[in-house]
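Translate sequence into structure tokens.
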Amino acid sequence: MKTLRYILVLSLLFSIKPQTASCAEVPDTLMEVDTPSKVLITESSEGTRITVTDNKCGSEKSYLVEYTPGAKVSTSRKTTTSLFDIPFLDCINKKEKCGCFGSGWSIGADGLCIGLNEAHDQTGGGGLQWAKSFEISWLSCINVGYAFSRSRIYLGLGFDWRNYKATSDSRWLETSENGGVQWGEAPEGALVKYSRLKVFSLQMPLLYEWRVPKSQLKLKIGPILNFNTYSSLLGVCNDAYGNRQEYFTKNFKRNPTTLDFFGAFSYSNVLGIYVRYSPMKVLKDSSPINFTPLTIGISFFI
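Result follows.
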């Protein structure tokens, strides 16, 4: 009889063990998405499906809750979109994946920079005004880079247009005998409205990009090589009779290549601030008026 009891107890123990294992706690995480931007809940005959779209790379993850036979279920559908969800940029900038950059080679693009130009360390008595001098730059219309972790290094191709302006009642910018730029007197009896120096450049930025953890902030720093392909002078005045007169020339010498140092902070790839400075002179050293450019401004979509 004792032997029979032991056999019955052991049988019960073995029958309870599989049931205990089957009652182990099941994790409640159905899916994990780092930067969700859209949640879609749909109902069909098979059940309720939850689909989440990733904010950066556009990928989707879904989970299906199956219905039991005869179940009565009430469902609703809701779609939310981030304020800074811009599909156009996602198509261009495939380098950003799931909250960071992923890894590997990629092709991308940057947006616009608009700022005020300071003619730093002016020679020739000064006169170029920061508040009236502007820069418009397309940082890179295309770039190729390598991404790793939260960082990316890339080389791009872009365009830059810088305007240095001065307003004076008695003088304007003109060319000097040695092919430089100097201050000159306007025609007798004329009232000078303004004069300006314009430089257009083909630029190649080599930038390091880093995304701040747990935020939408992004930092870019690095050098920009400029090929200064075009420059001109324009002076505008009203003569003694009130008629508009212009002085225009391209006959002066600029530095064909210059190097800038660039730094920018941006938020959510939409709006930011940037600083750009070059230790190199804009014109040839022999020019009576010369300076190094310093630009501070705002950036869009970089």
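Note: The radius of gyration is 33 Å.
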